[in-house]
Amino acid sequence: MTASFRQDVSGAMAYPARWTLNRLLFKTPVVWWRMGLRPLLWRRMILVTTWGRKSRLPRHTMLSYTLHAGKAYLIAGWGARADWYQNTVSDNHTTAQLGGSP
User: Global pTM?
Assistant: First the structure.
């Protein structure tokens, strides 16, 4: 898949670079989830597990979702730039766990 976007490297909506504090803060909800602190998370959070398109390792991301007609809908905050979205496009074997799931 070739990227059809240009990376915004500055500003509030710039995708956080790897190994930065901002990127680490985005992973904090996953750590809370694993520690059993789900009540501290927002009510509508879902843990999405994808397989890395390059590393082939499992990648975990916390996303907010909305329910409509009994289905959960996710929105990629950075569109096609989001790693979880690109991983899903590359390999559609994806799992999702809602707040009450172990």
Answer: 0.66
